[in-house]
Amino acid sequence: MKADNTLLVCVIDDMALFSKKIHCMVSQYLAARNISSEICVVSNPQELKALDISALDILIADIDLGQEQENGITLAKYINHINPRCQIIFVSSYLNYATEVYSANHTWFILKKQLEQKLPMALGKALENLSPSSGIPLVLKRGREQFMIDANTIICIESLQRKVLIYCTDRIEEAYSTIYALEKQLPSKKFVRCHNSYIVNLSMVEVFSASSLTLSKDITVPISRQYKAATKAAFMEHSVMMLEGITQ
């Protein structure tokens, strides 16, 4: 977002007519809410990468871009690393992509045939995530000072005896606390304890395997036998919530 609070939105689709349709819908949605915006349309990954991705607020990306090497999902992973706060909305004609999108952090997945119904919901969620008031404050102590971290930016938390390391999208913080105390502060629908020493943000999970989780920033954490069932259940519940944009 620019200094003047202009929302920066980009649409990428290799079909010009569909890009135009999305552009029109987004423009109308934001104008109705008196939100100043700049909306650009690109047709391929090269055009997108030529933009200032670090300033992008919302990306609406078709998954199949007609290229073998790159698609909307690989682009989303690229943007996740450069600009983790960017809200990514996937659109596709193919339902089989609905599970593949979980390899990248995203806000919503929309089937193109449901665009009119689901795009306003997805945009509303993206704006909610971008709003400073949407952050869940995690209160921490370091020495004699207290400080807060927006829980939405947390990738995972690691326990180190009497200290914890909080891995965020933009930094790593150290604080005096127990992992148990932090677990009580965090919303259970967004975070799960997967090990005696780790709590993870379910929105940051890219790969779920039998013994570990791969998170954003290429962070891998173990899943212990004690927490395996609870971790799997929490991940599945979170996945269902994200897929509501398809099934409702």
Level of helix content?
25-40%
* Quaternary form: single chain
Share in β-strands: 25-35%
> Strand arrangement, largest sheet?
2-1-3-4-5
Radius of gyration: 19 Å
Major sheet, described briefly? Answer: 5 strands, parallel
Element string (H = helix, E = strand): EHEHEHEHEHEEEEEHEEEEEHH
Counted up, domains total 2
How many angstroms separate the termini?
31 Å
User: From the coordinates shown, what is the CATH architecture of the largest domain?
Assistant: 3-Layer(aba) Sandwich
DSSP, total strands: 15
Features:
single chain, 248 residues, alpha/beta, Rossmann fold, OB fold (Dihydrolipoamide Acetyltransferase, E2P), 2 domains, 5-stranded parallel beta sheet, 5-stranded antiparallel beta sheet, 8 helices, 15 strands, 31% strand, globular
